[in-house]
Write a structure and sequence with these properties.
The protein contains 3 helices and 3 strands. It is mostly helical.
Length: 102
């Protein structure tokens, strides 16, 4: 089950690239909050509620580095999977419609 979920995450992220609104995943010590409206890491929490805390952002960044040939070795806890899925489902419609979300 976990492998299927990881594959779905990876598929959604790759799909966003082909649709023209890819995530800018560069997790650094200085930029740890992931802004879901912008699809990028930033250095502090934004003034809106659509962002990931550093722990979840790091998970998302790590997920993008997963080689699909080794996906079966990558594990996420249920809460981590739920948090990432909710985040991606927030990001995709936000990005698709020009970041006009209140």
């Amino acid at each position: 089950m976990n492998t299927l979920v990881i594959f779905i995450f990876t598929f959604l992220i790759e799909l966003s690239k082909h649709l023209g609104f890819s995530l800018k995943i560069i997790f650094t010590a200085a930029e740890t909050f992931f802004d879901l409206r912008e699809g990028a890491f930033i250095n502090k929490s934004p003034q809106h509620p659509d962002y990931l805390f550093p722990e979840s952002g790091k998970l998302l960044s790590d997920l993008l580095m997963v080689d699909l040939r080794n996906i079966r070795y990558y594990q996420l806890a249920k809460q981590e999977r739920d948090d990432l899925m909710n985040s991606l489902l927030t990001f995709l419609p936000t990005a698709r419609f020009g970041n006009k979300r209140d």
